[in-house]
Design brief:
The complex is a heterotrimer of chains A (about 180), B (about 650) and C (about 160). By secondary structure, chain A is α/β, with parallel strands linked by helices. Chain A is built from five helices and seven strands. Chain A has a single domain, classed as Glutaredoxin (3-Layer(aba) Sandwich). Chain A has a five-stranded mixed sheet with strand order 5-4-3-6-7. In chain A, strands 1-2 form a two-stranded antiparallel ribbon. In chain A, helix 2 links the parallel strand 3 and strand 4. Chain A is elongated. Chain B is α+β, with helices and mostly antiparallel strands and about 650 residues long. Among the domains of chain B are: about 240 residues, no CATH class; about 100 residues, no CATH class. Chain B contains 21 helices and ten strands. In chain B, helix 19 runs antiparallel to helix 20. Chain C has two domains: about 90 residues, Orthogonal Bundle (Helicase, Ruva Protein, domain 3), CATH 1.10.8; about 35 residues. In chain C, about 55% of the residues lie in helices and about 0% in strands. Chain C is built from six helices and no strands. Chain C is rod-shaped. The termini of chain C are far apart. The chains are: A alpha/beta (about 180), B alpha+beta (about 650), C mainly alpha (about 160). Chains in contact: A-B, A-C, B-C. Chains B and C meet through helix 8, helix 9, helix 10, helix 13 and helix 14 of B and helix 1 and helix 5 of C.
């Protein structure tokens, strides 16, 4: 019995080591959204100047599976994902709505002219970014999948890459469209 | 060419370390004196080779040799010389080389100062030390080579993070590493003792000075880091319970426990296997800190900063070194003979209580630090564990500790009566209660935080408890005064060490309590000529000018500060914009007084012609630094004790090499 | 120290000077409440920093919104719930006491109990100097003692 007690340190250490091993494969920065399977927040965002739409409201998301993409002209990683969003737009699989977050609307519009405009509707969410915070946004870009009943089904953090699109986002959209 | 020499020296050091890890160990088990003696020259060779390597990297930094990738990524020609040198360890690879250098120096020190160690123990301890060196040399050579070249070399380097361009960088990491690595000595001695199957008073006496030295360095390093944060980050905070800080605090707690339990081993020949366990744990926690900080399991900001290969490697090192040691412990420790007896109420008993609370404290910090990882790994969701948790759980644990600290030294060895010790603390108790009441009244009752009175009472209790013990020792007022004085002069240095260190903690507690409880601040947009008063200090902003530094531009505010209408000081905080890498920093202006720090920070100009200024009064902050200074001083005084310095207790019974469990 | 240490290790840092005067509430009581809550809310894009200590844009936004809600007359708990509803328990630097944090909150007490218990066991196992109990002989020992005594008688 006393001998077992002497094994305690190595046992505790062993358990710790297993956790560390597991920890090496985890990303402590990835925070899952608490809004999954909850309705999209109520929003009524002003349009981007010169774009011709009427902005983005909660009602606009009703009836179709859609993507809501958080971007900003100041956001470097957004430039990276943008061409791919334009490609997705061309396939016509899903409408993409943009939220121009913490941005000067004029700059936001200019940026879309320069990099291409994949969005159906764009709403402006100036600082302090109330709508973005309602969405639980931690940074740009982030992309939400919203179903026909305006329920948030998935949140993608960071740029939408071809891999992320093919392997994660597209299958979810297909499933929701069934 | 010089970089290649540095790289090659590391490879040679690896070869030497391999020899040192094996030959003396085999020699010790066979009783071969020549093989055992090899640990001396090999550890000297290590110092030389690793020293060459370190010098080579330093040379690359000093001469701004940007063909070395490490230099190109972390240095810049415009950087002042101090930061070129300190920049050597301002990055992952270089800091690892510093770690190895210190490891080698400690090994060399054992060879140099350990002439009277029994050859068996010495050669085994140095062999274990060499095994650690092998692990770290493999780590640096395989995953983090500081001498990797860059082709073609850039015209200039990327520079060092401006936050690090501070004299703090020159001293904080080396001291911290001296502490971490210092615990490797206690560890090596513990493993050697387990292999020998023998721990006795002599062993404890050899280990204590090394542990004490490591503890002094670590205390110094942690305090310096806190001080650096206090003046550099610009809002007067000094401790955040961040994983990186906890990583240095946990070995400190374990090391403090080890210092106290080693006393019991030395005096009573008891708590032996526990002390061995603590020695392994203290170094284990140092290694764990390295793992946490460099692997990204706890805090990874961006993917580029962490390299999974490094994480896997350190984890492997941790498993081999610490897991292996605990396993050896499980096998060998039960055979350690139990030693002397003592009653629960005795000096030894209170030292054990210290260990109970310190170990619980270290365990608590470990649990809080790792809990986000546990929760994530078990799919319990992401959790944050921040300062509110640690303050709520850790600080209450330290209350009984401080209460007992005043009592313990008054207890006699082996068996004592608590009532007697407590009766001698009547005055201390009465004044502590008085301090609590006075504090409560002074802060206007519940206008200040409720715990402030308790904190001040604890500080008074401990400080007077320490003085009571000193008075008892010299029989003050009970013997003629002259006799007391001569007793005072004859007190052993180790007794002085304890007295100064414990009193230092009391001073620290007072400073910590006051600076947390009664900090006053005022944040505003201040126009030139406007006066803002904080805690009786009137700050008048005279002007804001642009000044040019060696590698930055700064706007420097000038405050004329007066107290009660009399001029107090002219303070000039800066807001700097560094060029490479482009980053802003704030340089606070601090005027320290006995009762508190007057602290001023200047920010951007607001739209209305004013400047954002932050003015603080941080009470008794200097008491915290003075308190830690006393703790360090106490440790140093204790180190000069003849018994420690000579460290020459001889084992009476058996020649070391023939000892088997 | 944390940010310095991080800067040291990761070469990532942003000096923080949070809370611009323009953000602050006029009412000092409400401002104090907002600050106290803000210190318990984690800045999501930083290290273990609270939104009060952080210079990040998102932390600034949260500071502004927290103050707006206080100004509207909400209580600390309501404002906290507002943030938790959007970001989950992760934003709370003071983790709530619930099923998933049971081990965290009770662990330290369990550790203390174990450590104190181990100390007691230490004294119990090894009779201390002032109480060395007389252990009665077992029947086997008695028998052997008797046998020895008999042997002695015989010789």
């Amino acid at each position: 019995m006393r001998r077992l007690l002497y094994l305690l340190p190595v046992a505790v250490f062993g358990i710790l080591a297993l956790f560390f091993l597991r920890g090496l494969t985890l990303n402590p920065r990835e925070i899952p959204s608490v809004l999954i399977n909850r309705p999209v927040p109520v929003m009524n965002l002003a349009p981007l100047p010169g774009r011709g739409d009427t902005g983005l409201t909660t009602a606009d998301l009703k009836g179709r599976v859609s993507l809501v993409n958080i971007y900003g002209s100041w956001c470097i990683a957004c430039v990276q994902e943008h061409p791919y969003l334009v490609k997705i737009k061309q396939t016509g699989i899903v409408p993409i709505h943009g939220i121009d977050w913490r941005d000067d609307p004029v700059e936001g519009a200019k940026w879309l002219k320069k990099h291409g405009d994949p969005y159906d509707r764009v709403g402006v969410d100036p600082a302090p970014g109330r709508t973005a915070i309602d969405f639980g946004v931690t940074g740009a870009p982030e992309t939400f999948i919203v179903d026909k009943d305006s329920i948030i089904r998935y949140k993608h953090i960071g740029p939408v890459t071809p891999e992320a699109w093919e392997q994660t986002l597209l299958p979810i959209i297909k499933e929701l469209n069934k | 060419m010089i970089a290649e020499i540095g790289h090659f020296a590391l490879i040679l050091a690896l070869a030497v370390a391999l020899v040192q890890a094996v030959v003396p160990l085999v020699g010790a088990s066979r009783g071969n004196a020549a093989w055992m003696a090899l640990s001396g020259p090999t550890s000297a060779a290590q110092v030389l080779l690793v020293g060459i390597s370190f010098a080579a990297l330093t040379h690359a930094y000093v001469t701004s040799d940007f063909s070395v990738m490490n230099v190109a990524q972390n240095s810049h020609t415009d950087k002042p010389m101090l930061y070129k040198v300190a920049g050597v360890w301002g990055n992952h690879e270089g800091s690892l080389l510093l770690w190895i250098t210190i490891l080698a120096v400690f090994g060399g020190a054992v060879t140099l100062f350990g002439r009277n160690l029994p050859p068996g123990l010495k050669s085994r301890a140095l062999a274990v030390q060499a095994m650690i060196t092998v692990g770290f040399l493999l780590f640096i050579l395989l995953t983090s080579n500081p001498f990797a070249r860059l082709e073609p070399p850039p015209l200039n380097g990327q520079g060092l993070n401006p936050l690090l361009q501070d004299p703090g960088l020159a001293f904080h990491p080396p001291l911290l590493y001296l502490g971490y690595v210092g615990f490797s000595m206690a560890f090596s001695f513990a493993i050697a003792a387990l292999i020998e199957g023998r721990v006795d008073a002599a062993w404890a006496r050899w280990v204590r000075p090394w542990t004490l030295a490591a503890w002094v360095f670590l205390t110094c390093g942690i305090a310096l880091g806190s001080w650096w944060a206090y003046y550099e980050l610009g809002w007067g905070g000094w401790w955040y319970w961040d994983p990186v800080e906890n990583a240095s605090f946990m070995p400190w707690l374990a090391g403090t426990a080890l210092l106290h339990s080693a006393v019991v081993v030395e005096k009573r020949d008891a708590l032996k296997s526990w002390t061995i366990l603590l020695a392994i744990t203290a170094f284990g926690l140092s290694l764990l800190g390295t793992f946490l900080v460099r692997s990204g399991v706890i805090t990874s900001v961006h993917a580029f900063a962490t390299d999974p290969a490094r994480g896997v490697f350190i984890l492997g090192l941790l498993v081999v070194a610490i897991g292996g040691s605990f396993l050896l412990y499980a096998v060998r420790a039960p055979a350690l003979k139990t030693g002397g007896l003592f009653a629960p109420l005795s000096r030894e008993g209170t030292l054990l209580l210290n260990n109970v609370l310190m170990a619980t404290g270290a365990g608590t910090v470990l649990l809080g630090t790792l809990y986000p990882l546990f929760a994530d790994a078990l799919n319990l969701g992401k959790v944050s564990v921040g300062p509110p948790f640690f303050n709520a759980v850790f600080l209450p644990l330290m209350v009984p500790m401080v209460l007992a600290m005043a009592v313990g030294p008054l207890m006699s060895w082996k068996r004592s009566d608590l009532a007697g010790a407590l009766s001698r603390l009547k005055i201390a108790a009465a004044l502590a209660v008085a301090a609590a009441i006075a504090t409560w009244v002074w802060q206007g009752g519940s206008l200040g935080p409720w715990w402030a009175a308790g904190g001040m009472a604890l500080a008074v209790w401990l400080f007077l408890g320490v003085l009571t013990e000193l008075a008892e020792r010299i029989r003050l007022f009970r013997a003629p005064f002259g006799q007391s004085l001569s007793r005072l002069a004859k007190l052993p240095r180790s007794a002085w060490g304890m007295t100064i260190t414990h009193a230092g903690l009391a001073v620290f507690i007072a400073g910590m309590t006051a600076s947390s409880a009664w900090k006053q601040e005022s944040v505003q947009s201040q126009k030139i000529g406007e006066t803002i008063t904080v805690a009786g200090y009137a700050f008048t902003l005279k002007d804001v000018q642009n000044v040019q530094g060696p590698n930055y531009l700064a706007s420097r505010g000038t405050f004329e500060v007066s107290k009660d209408g009399k001029p107090f000081a002219v303070m000039q905080p800066q807001k700097r914009q560094y060029k490479s890498p482009p980053m802003p920093t704030t340089e606070a202006a601090i005027e320290t007084t006995f009762l508190g720090d007057v602290y001023a920070v200047i920010g951007d100009s607001g739209g209305d012609g004013g400047y954002v200024t932050r003015l603080y009064f941080n009470p008794l902050v200097v008491w915290m630094w003075a308190g830690t200074g006393m703790m360090v001083l106490g440790g140093l005084v204790s180190l000069t004790d003849r018994r420690h310095r000579v460290g020459a207790p001889t084992r009476a019974r058996l020649p070391a090499h023939s000892v088997r469990a | 120290m944390k940010r310095l240490a991080l800067a040291l290790m990761l070469a990532v840092a942003a000096p923080a000077l949070a809370a611009d005067p323009s953000e602050m509430l006029k009412d000092p009581v409400l401002e104090k409440k907002a600050e106290d809550l803000g210190k318990e809310l984690r800045c999501l894009v930083c290290q273990n920093e609270s939104i009060e200590d952080s210079n990040a844009d998102l932390a600034r936004d949260l500071r502004v919104i927290v103050r707006e809600r206080f100004a509207k007359g909400e209580s600390s708990d309501q404002v906290k719930q507002y943030v938790v509803d959007r970001y989950g328990d992760y934003v709370l630097l003071n983790p709530p006491f619930k099923g998933t944090t049971l081990v965290l909150w009770l662990g330290p007490f369990a550790l203390l109990v174990v450590a104190v218990g181990a100390a007691f066991a230490f004294f119990r196992r090894r009779p201390s100097v002032n109480a060395t109990p007389v252990v009665p002989l077992s029947t086997e020992e008695k028998r052997r003692l008797d046998a020895l005594l008999k042997d002695g008688d015989r010789s």
